[in-house]
Specification:
The chain has helices at about 15-25, 45-50, 65-75; strands at about 35-40, 55-60, 85, 100-105. It is an alpha/beta fold. It has a single domain (about 10-105), classed as Vaccinia Virus protein VP39 (Rossmann fold, 3-Layer(aba) Sandwich). A four-stranded parallel beta sheet has the order 3-2-1-4, with helices on one face. The longest helix has 13 residues, at about 65-75.
């Protein structure tokens, strides 16, 4: 999917098209039933995975309120009913098991990282 298709926002990270293509290939989602996307940002990885594999359940975890809004808008824009958005931080926000996990996003020391 082209990057331009996604709604974007200032200071909300997005995994770029070339990286998404590689990541989705390496995750081997054709064998998976549940993907967890940690630090989902705009939702580009979650959305592309959900569209490529309609039977895949996707959990998108994000802590940034602005990113959560964009993530939900993008989920609606692409009509991805198989994506659950979970506000919070990993690992606390993660419940259940997954066949695949993608850890995206970035965190700076100024964001409270240790």
């Amino acid at each position: 999917m082209k990057d331009e298709l996604f709604l974007r926002g200032e200071n909300v990270p997005m995994t770029k098209e070339a990286v998404r293509a590689l990541v989705l290939s390496k995750l081997e989602l054709h064998r998976a039933s549940h993907l967890i996307d940690v630090g989902a940002g705009t939702g580009s990885v979650s959305i592309e995975a959900a569209l490529q594999f309609p039977s895949l359940q996707v959990t998108a975890i994000e802590r940034n309120p602005a990113a959560l809004r964009l993530l939900d808008e993008n989920r609606q824009r692409f009509a991805c009913g198989n994506i659950d958005i979970l506000p919070g931080e990993a690992p606390m926000a993660i419940t259940g098991k997954a066949d695949a996990v993608f850890m995206g996003g970035k965190r700076r020391a100024s964001d409270g990282a240790d």
